[in-house]
């Protein structure tokens, strides 16, 4: 009820009930984050220490902005790959930890999440909402979880 968009919950096994739910930045465009603990089927992320973090917000993930957040230090190259989730375009970002930029619909400006760096991320849009799954999962496993997110009624 605190956000102006339908919050989606994956139906993939182990993702139906997040352990924790957070509401962030209400004044500058709300973000809802689900936290899933690490376990035998869900390895801990080096950056967050949790199994997975699924964040949802009204905003646009633009390729140019994503590329700005990717490091190019030569030691560990970050890869950006175009993907499709539920027939919609998205991005798989893997490799070195990176920042995160997005255009927030509520304020109409580019923002960067500055609180931490991210590891492997699957980023896609679904009916005006951007979803961002961060985990240590493989590309294929992350896509399977994303495909389990139902479209809003």
Description of the molecule:
By secondary structure, this protein is mostly beta strands. Helix content is about 10%, strand content about 40%. The chain is built from 2 helices and 10 strands. The protein has helices at about 65-70, 140-145, and strands at about 20-25, 30-35, 50-55, 60, 80-85, 90-95, 100-105, 110-120, 120-125, 130-135. A 7-stranded antiparallel β-sheet has the order 1-2-3-10-9-6-5. A 3-stranded antiparallel β-sheet has the order 4-7-8. The longest helix has 9 residues, at about 140-145. The radius of gyration is 14 Å and the shape is globular.
User: What's the count of strands?
Assistant: 10
Radius of gyration: 14 Å
Mean pLDDT: 78
Q: What order do the strands of the largest sheet run in, or round the barrel if closed?
A: 1-2-3-10-9-6-5
Secondary-structure element series: EEEEHEEEEEEH
Largest sheet: 7 strands, antiparallel
In whole angstroms, how far apart are the ends? 16 Å
Helix content: under 10%
């Amino acid at each position: 009820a605190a956000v102006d968009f339908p919050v989606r919950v994956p139906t993939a096994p182990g993702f139906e009930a997040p352990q924790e739910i957070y509401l962030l930045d209400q004044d500058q465009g709300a973000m809802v984050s689900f936290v899933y603990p690490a376990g035998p089927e869900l390895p801990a992320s080096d950056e967050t220490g949790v199994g997975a973090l699924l964040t949802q917000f009204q905003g646009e993930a633009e390729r140019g902005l994503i590329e700005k957040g990717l490091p190019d230090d030569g030691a560990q190259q970050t890869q950006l790959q175009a993907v499709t989730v539920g027939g919609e375009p998205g991005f798989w970002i893997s490799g070195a930890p990176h920042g995160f930029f997005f255009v927030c619909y509520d304020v109409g400006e580019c923002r960067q999440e500055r609180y931490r760096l991210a590891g492997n991320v699957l980023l896609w849009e679904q009916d005006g909402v951007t979803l961002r799954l961060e985990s240590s999962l493989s590309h294929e496993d992350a896509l399977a979880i994303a495909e389990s997110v139902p479209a809003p009624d």
